[in-house]
Structure to design on (256 residues):
């Protein structure tokens, strides 16, 4: 019996290594949800398992801005966020999706993202490929894409593409080429990724905050070996970006 449990445990670990977490933030299981299911089938074709989580099935309280999670390492609100955050940490890649409401992501998704504020200080998802999906009747695609990219930068995840559908092309099937960057990042080593200058700068801001403002953050960064890094991991970064990044760090370190 013990051997059987060990085998199951090993198999579960293997599955986790190839499992994509798909987060649906639409109340209706219609346009956004159907696009996600199409993506799921393409992931299966490429030997990835996936799980769709519908945010409206979970209790997610509004963030109160008390910073308890940042200071003490946990939120005192009793809801499903710990469960959802662990799901995200345990996945090998994340797909965030939203219908576009008033030119941006849904309120439900924004509430969830707000509750991950401690990940700005202790980026648990650093290096995880993240694909974004949005659907709209007409407008807001450009603004929503920017919102999604900002979330990725704050989390330290790898921006792995953006799939959008409007009323003009909502019936167009999702093509595998639309997932090409996501699939490549899932299959390649992290060093394949090319962080933008803003991603590199935010990394340095976070590092300075870890060194100067919170001992819990400092320990987290130390344990991951990030305190002497130009980025979370070795990746494609040209010399000018490295020089500028180090200059930003020195300037901020003196100011904070």
């Amino acid at each position: 019996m013990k051997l059987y449990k060990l085998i199951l445990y090993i198999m579960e670990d293997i599955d986790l290594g190839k499992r994509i977490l798909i987060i649906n933030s639409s109340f209706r299981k219609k346009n956004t949800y159907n696009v996600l299911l199409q993506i799921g089938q393409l992931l299966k074709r490429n030997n990835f398992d996936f799980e769709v989580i519908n945010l409206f099935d979970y209790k997610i309280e509004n963030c109160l801005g008390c910073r308890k999670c940042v200071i003490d390492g946990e939120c005192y609100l009793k809801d499903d966020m710990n469960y959802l955050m662990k799901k995200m940490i345990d996945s090998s890649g994340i797909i965030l999706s939203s219908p576009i409401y008033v030119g941006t992501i849904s309120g439900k998704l924004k509430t969830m993202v707000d509750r991950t504020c401690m990940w700005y200080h202790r980026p648990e998802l650093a290096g995880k490929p993240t694909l974004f999906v949005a659907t709209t009747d007409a407008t807001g695609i450009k603004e929503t894409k920017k919102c999604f990219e900002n979330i990725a930068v704050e989390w330290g995840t790898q921006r792995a593409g953006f799939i959008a559908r409007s009323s003009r092309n909502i019936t167009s099937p999702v093509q595998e080429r639309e997932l090409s960057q996501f699939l490549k990042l899932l299959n390649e080593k992290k060093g394949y990724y090319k962080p933008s200058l803003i991603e590199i700068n935010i990394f340095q801001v976070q590092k300075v905050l870890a060194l100067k403002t919170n001992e819990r953050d400092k320990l987290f960064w130390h344990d991951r070996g990030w305190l002497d890094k130009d980025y979370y991991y070795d990746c494609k970064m040209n010399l000018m970006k490295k020089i500028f990044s180090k200059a930003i760090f020195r300037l901020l370190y003196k100011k904070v």
User: Anything to note?
Assistant: The beta strands are 19-24, 49-54, 93-99, 129-135, 158-165.
